[in-house]
UniProtKB/TrEMBL annotation:
InterPro entries, sorted: RMC1, RMC1_C, RMC1_N, WD40_repeat_dom_sf
Gene Ontology CC annotation, any one: Mon1-Ccz1 complex
Species of origin: Monodon monoceros (Narwhal)
Native organism taxonomy: Eukaryota, Metazoa, Chordata, Craniata, Vertebrata
Domain Regulator of MON1-CCZ1 complex N-terminal: 26-144
Protein name: Regulator of MON1-CCZ1
Amino acid sequence: MGEEDYYLELCERPVHFEKANPVNCVFFDEANKQVFAVRSGGATGVVVKGPDDRNPISFRMEDKGEVKCIKFSLENKILAVQRTSKTVDFSNFTPDSPPLEYTQECKTKNANILGFCWTSSTEIVFITDQGIEFYQVLPEKRNLKLLKSQNINVNWYMYCPESAVILLSTTVLGNVLQPFYFRAGTMSKLPKFEIELPAAPKSTKLSLSERDIAMATIYGQLYVLFLRHHSRTSNSTGAEVVLYHLPREGACKKTHILKLNRTGKFALNVVDNLVVVHHQDTETSVIFDIKLRGEFDGTITLHHPVLPARSIQPYQIPVAGPAPVTSQSPIPCKLYSSSWIVFQPDIIISASQGYLWNLQVKLQPIVNLLPDKGRLMDFLLQRRECKTVVLSVCSQMLTESDRATLPVIATVFDKLNQEYKKYLDAEQSYTLALEAGQSRSGPFLRRPARTQAVVDQSDMYTHVLSAFAEKKEMPQKFMIAVLMEYIRSLNQFQITVQHYLHELVIKTLVQHNLFYTLHQFLQYHVLSDSKPLACLLLSLESFYPPAHQLSLDMLKRLSTANDEIVEVLLSKHQVLAALRFIRGIGGHDNISARKFLDAAKQTEDHMLFYTIFRFFEQRNQRLRGNPSFTPGEHCEEHVAFFKQVFGDQALMRPTTF
């Protein structure tokens, strides 16, 4: 398989740590995304590394027994270490505080601590087999204050740091889940919910393992993902992932089912709002997008993998060591290894090899794996880094070899402009709210983020349409149809079409001598009136004489002042067109000769300058009986320039009657 076939890859620069062995224990903290390598209980050193940490944190601590759990508070201010099932030890890591330890015992008698989670830089939650205890750490006093606790039988727990929600598995079977939400010193109990097990369990032992549950934020909403190894319906084979939506308020609901159509060992990640399911037996992965249309039965949407199963792209482990030694070839990494541990949302750790990777989605290979262009666009527009790929898809569908049909092209344009319109509306609402002064009263007024899914007219013009219009081999009818289709789509979403798109249409029509079509487009206002467009039409008069009148009609419809029209034409170096226009409305006796001669000289076209100069000489002769310019017209430099280029004899002589 070529590189263009893999749509998942491990990040280029993984976090490298000392691999796990009998002396070195490895821990991972999901909140800070840090790996702790603890040697000999910390006595011979602890090294902490995270994906964004330039410099790892290294320290030593006294070996007081086997470390069960070790984590820094947010911002790495306080270290918490659990060594027994009853207590957690703390030490301050701020520069001015002595590294003295202080200890907190769990409050509930006979309870065993299953683990702990930091919810802020000074707030921590102990999870015991008998409940949950929420503390504030007071580092200067070196003690803890209990803020709130709740008694409940706990089998295991799970923490989602992005949403600050802890999930507790309760009851004998373990399938009743109780969420708690933490924010700024408060702990809120959310409604509990039950996970439907594949079949009624025969025994009364724990039936829901934490291995089969994950928590992740997908499209801004928190979901609990349950890996059900056998479907509840007997006629369906294979495992499935059931998504439960866990809102901040209201009951948790089962909303999506992802059909895996296979059995075996699975692991879940969430990358760029996609659910990635790894399958160990076949060493492949599949991706699901819950925003894409699935089979909806009124309450639940069934989804199938977006793409065929593929392996993660083969990965080479660079050989570390001095430069001469590293010339040996890198070692291929064993993908889907049984020693891999997966954490949410996108982390894969190989403790035996000493690497932490972030899983990434590659969009370019997906273009060829998803033939349905409409579905492909729906998929791409939801991805973080999609713009270059979206533009390349648009260019590709307009090439001779991969040419799409007009209905498909229309669908793609509509999907792009739907996103574009959404952004323009949000931007407009924000501007109106600002003008109405809401910014003072409402702190929630935020400028809408311009995501990569916003592909505007200048993007399309620059990267797709202007290059497309220059293709010689493309049938002209198809070319015009595509340009008009894009304009139709913009109009459909009530987006003002930029003049450069109309100009592109006109230039393309002129290039192919399709003047009749051009006339019709203008007559029936298919192309919207604008000053730049009118100027372009004036410049086309030599190819197509009626363009002059079409242009003037357009300028009049725009109720443009005549002198403004002249200014626009002169700025576009359309000196003759400006002169024709001013003659057409009978204003040529009052115009400034100098302005026109300046403009003619700037074009560096000597024959044009001659024509304009001669026109004004003739006007002077007609009005004053003498072709020469009066001092008040300030044309001395132009007369000198005329003599220099054409000689004295070219000047017009006064005619006498």
